[in-house]
Specification:
Length: 343
């Protein structure tokens, strides 16, 4: 089966659907394996925080804020465990605590505190006055909410505390911690997310970096001069900065957009971004400027769902759509070959 980048632009325009399956067949999805990244908590560390919290509260019998705060300051990862019991994200916890106490806790401060603990979970906290007040407010809010349990809501609603260790307040927590149920593991899995989605979201840039790194390796091996842009970087002359510009943004001849997604909804947004780059190139041509070739490098099962989106990308890039399985053809089957200096 021929790939679209092997065909002439006219052939692609005549029958783009003939190439959709070729691209689909070469898409690679690696959603079962994720990088850990900085700040990943191993279960043993998380469990130690659970045991510290359980010990300080006498098996969750005395869930007084002072006792919990002492455990958190001595064993900071206990704060992560407390958040897992609530089932909140750091910004959600900060918002609720700010609304229930006199403390003002910015969401960025909550995120920073959470990350600081995850990167150094064994290091006792010695916070300044402001941070200590915020931690105390988070702890008090958690203790109050856990003690209150799940309130009644209308039949067509679902409360966030409607879970095994939240229905009956502290009684539910105590039951799970004493009935032989591996409560710490349940909380750890909740901490990682739906399942592991919380962690997956936190390392999404690392996952995407794998595709960009592979592209960079091929460009370097071929001796191609390129400019790799940074996250959210602005480039003069570009409404949106592509991931790579060859040779540079001052005289662009080829732009490369690297996109990875495991979700078809996100895939549509990313396809739109690639098509927008094609529109920008066409606009440059109409203004008498040098147009650039748009190259799309795609990975992930999300791109393998919507045929029409793939068809549009193939048509608009004139067949220059590559996947991890075909990156070895990237330089030879695009205008990048004009910039090759090494074989």
């Amino acid at each position: 089966m021929r790939y679209p980048f092997e065909a002439t632009p006219d052939a692609v325009l005549r029958d783009p659907d003939a190439y959709v399956d070729a691209v689909f067949s070469s898409l690679v999805s690696d959603f079962l394996v994720m990088p850990k990244g900085d700040g990943f908590l191993e279960y043993a560390v998380f469990a130690s925080g659970y045991e510290a919290l359980k010990s300080a509260t006498r098996g969750f019998a005395d869930f007084a804020p002072d006792a919990v705060l002492g455990a958190v300051l001595e064993r900071p990862v206990a704060l992560i465990v407390l958040r897992a019991i609530l089932g909140f994200t750091p910004p959600e916890w900060a918002w609720v605590a700010s609304s229930r106490t006199s403390a003002a806790i910015p969401q960025n401060a909550a995120r920073s505190l959470d990350r600081r603990i995850r990167t150094a979970p064994d290091q006792p906290l010695k916070p300044g006055e402001t941070t200590r007040a915020r931690i105390a407010a988070l702890v008090k809010t958690a203790c109050d909410l856990i003690a209150e349990g799940c309130p009644q809501v209308p039949p067509d609603k679902l409360h966030r505390f409607c879970k095994a260790d939240g229905l009956e307040g502290l009684d539910s927590v105590r039951q799970l911690s004493s009935l032989g149920v591996p409560h710490a593991m349940l909380l750890y899995e909740r901490f990682l997310g739906r399942p592991f989605a919380g962690h997956r979201d936190s390392v999404s840039e690392l996952v995407g970096d794998g595709l960009e790194t592979a592209i960079e390796e091929h460009l370097v091996a071929a001796g191609v001069t390129f400019r790799k842009t940074k996250r959210a970087e602005r480039l003069a002359g570009f409404e949106q900065a592509p991931d790579f510009v060859v040779p540079d943004e001052f005289h662009p001849a080829v732009v490369i957009e690297a996109k990875l997604t495991e979700d078809d909804g996100t895939a549509r947004d990313k396809a739109t971004r690639i098509i927008r780059l094609c529109d920008m190139s066409a606009q440059r041509s109409r203004e008498g400027k040098q147009a650039y070739q748009v190259v799309a490098c795609l990975a992930g099962r999300g791109f393998g769902v919507r045929r029409e989106d793939m068809r549009q990308m193939i048509v608009r890039t004139q067949g220059k759509v590559f996947t991890p399985k075909t990156l070895d053809r990237l330089v030879d089957c695009s205008d990048l070959q004009r910039f090759r200096t090494r074989r």
